[in-house]
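Problem 12. The chain below contains 379 residues. Write out its predicted structure in token notation.
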Amino acid sequence: MNFHHSEERQALQDSLRQMLGREYDMAARAATIASHSGLSENHWKLFTEIGVFHVLLPQSVGGLGGSGLDIMAVFEAVGPALVVEPLRSVGVLAASALSLGGGHQELIDGLLEGRNLVSWAHAETAAGYSPAYVETTATPTSQGWLLTGGKVDVDHGAAATHLIISARTAGAVDDPAGLALFVLPSDTPGVGIQEFPTVDGRRTAHVALDNVLVPAAAAVGPVGEAYPLIEAALSRGIVAVCAEALGMMQAAFESTREYLLQRHQFGVALSSFQALQHRMVDLWVEIQQAESAVINAAYALDSTSRAHRERTVSAAKFTLGRAALHTAEEAIQLHGAIGMTDELTLSHLAKALVAVDHILGDEDHHLQRYITLSKEIAA
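Solution.
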């Protein structure tokens, strides 16, 4: 297995890092967080111009890539900048559903050009992290489908131009069969959006659906058979989460290493204390293991075996959820009290790293899923 990015991916990653270093400092990020919408139109335009969305989508729909390694290259670079714009929800989750489902090319073109902000709306209050649990219903009518229910944790839902909604056409609430995806403008009558901030500076929303009428053409993929599409989109989203966390962990490690080299106690640098050296080495090893897990998952996204793909992705999410929390704790402790101050980038990295485990499934969920999929493969 090749552990290095291709020249093209490395060039994109370098360009993205340079742009973020130039345009996306902590002051600009704070201004974006404090703004009414919680996202910067200027930054969104820059992401579009540099080709981020093209890299995340396959050539079949007008993109330039769309592989697991493309996702990793983008989000590993995005992580250290603590980007609050909904790149994952729009560029990976929603975009993957649209490209894999077929159709809606005009909407995809608008996404590639930065005109459409399509947000993923799948999670529900009682679902936990189950990808199949959907209470929202889709009832057929002479004019299309009537959607009723609600969604939670919709990234930047209030700023979205469109939403991709999962709904149930048949079966029990946790049945993989009987699921459908619909894309609709966010201002469709009957759609209610309540937005609030998250601990790591992003914006999320709850979406209420009160007899929302959508045409039959709003369906993404086959109605009643959308579970494989949902599962594949979520897997790609998980790889993006893991790659973003990896970038943040690397940044937290470098910040801590520099601090230990610069900070003196008893007349010598903190880096000279053997106990701290051991802790830094242990942290470095854990980050290398996390990187291997992300690379493995990125390759697995393009696997023809659904069970192998899903098991490898769950293994990565379990690994990164644990490693991200440990990195945050160690970096803060090794910095001392200064590590908790808003003025230090590390404190914001730590908040985001703590949140990683709760995005698209925590350690317990993915460990159990890994065990279940392992049994399926063995059988």
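Discussion. The CA atoms of residues 65 and 129 lie 29 Å apart. Students who got a different answer should revisit the alignment rule from Section 12.3.
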